[in-house]
Amino acid sequence: MARSQLQIKRMLQYFVDATVEIIEEEGIEQVSARKIGQKAGYTGSTIYNYFEELSHLIFFASMRFATGYLQELPDYLERGQTYLEKYVLSWECFCKHSFAQPQIYHALFIADLGKKPEDILAHYFSTYSSDLIGLTEEIKPLLYNPDLTSRSLALLKLAKKERELDDQTIADVNEMTVLIWEGMLTTILNKRREMDPEEAVEKTMKYIRNTMTILENSDPR
Known about the structure:
Layout: H1 3-26, H2 33-40, H3 54-64, H4 67-78, H5 83-100, H6 102-109, H7 117-127, H8 140-143, H9 148-157, H10 167-190, H11 197-216
Helix pairs in contact: 1-2, 1-3, 3-6, 4-5, 5-6, 5-9, 5-11, 9-10, 10-11
């Protein structure tokens, strides 16, 4: 790696580490360019030499908190005998981690990242390629897709290898699943109802499994 590339990676590391510390100490909502600069030992404006927007840096830092999800997802998928089962289990794993850290997963999957979020995600994994070690080829393509709907749809489409399924029905069920998750995450973030993460997972998975019966009972003819 060229010296200039090493320097850039080192600077990225400084800012990401500083952002992670702020999230751990004060919460993600307290992150600001000024605070990050102070912790990293640079001016806040220096951040924008390496990140186009503050949301990109928050995204990088938030990925650090998602390593548990990335590590546990393969174990969940292995429990499934069919792709429909794997799809449901992947959501169970996702709900477990996202409802325990709602602000983090909002930053990763809902917050506005600008025009090309896929480039940000590819940049992250090129910088922190070690995060991909041990992940199966079945999972890796999903990680490079920052859009939760299309990312989730890719796994559900694999069910067509095992049985006849209508593409539109697959798309509809997948969209309903994503909306169920988004609704629960919003409920948790807004604190409009008292609900612990375990209860949120249980309720969400109940609705997702009910939705899956549409596919299980569908006739593509």
